[in-house]
């Protein structure tokens, strides 16, 4: 559940995320690192349609995270 909270905000269909956390003595999980390894990081390798679609979805994901 802890990691899913960080993964869930991302509306992009396909990506890889790694969530690192540590457990306190009280049993609470604390986020250490959140890594988003998106396969579309090389936007210049996509055709214009795919690039525009990715940028739209990415922008929407950021908007959702800001809410």
Assembly classification = single chain
Number of domains: 1
Parts with pLDDT < 50 across at least 5 consecutive residues: none
> Helix and strand string, N-terminal first?
HEEH
Largest sheet data: 2 strands, antiparallel
Mean pLDDT over all positions = 80
Globular, elongated, flat, extended or rod-shaped: what is the shape?
elongated
Number of distinct helices:
2
What structural category do the secondary elements indicate? alpha+beta
Distance between the termini: 20 Å
Radius of gyration: 15 Å
Q: Hey, roughly how much beta strand do the residues contain?
A: 25-35%
What is the strand arrangement across the widest sheet? 1-2
**Residue share in helix:** 25-40%
Total strand segments: 2
Account of the 3D structure:
This protein has 67 residues and is of the alpha+beta class. It has one domain. Helix content is 39%, strand content 25%. It has 2 helices and 2 strands, in the order H-E-E-H. It has helices at residues 2-8, 48-66, and strands at residues 16-23, 29-37. A two-stranded antiparallel ribbon has the order 1-2. Strand 1 (16-23) and strand 2 form a beta hairpin. The longest helix is centred in the C-terminal third of the chain and has 19 residues, at 48-66. The radius of gyration is 15 Å and the shape is elongated. The two termini are 20 Å apart. The model has no long low-confidence stretch (mean pLDDT 80).
């Amino acid at each position: 559940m802890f990691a899913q909270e960080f993964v869930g905000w991302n509306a992009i269909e396909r990506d890889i995320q790694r969530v690192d956390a540590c457990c306190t003595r009280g049993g609470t999980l604390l986020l250490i690192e959140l890594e988003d390894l998106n396969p579309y990081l090389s936007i210049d390798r996509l055709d214009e349609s795919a690039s525009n679609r990715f940028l739209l979805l990415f922008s929407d994901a950021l908007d959702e995270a800001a809410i």
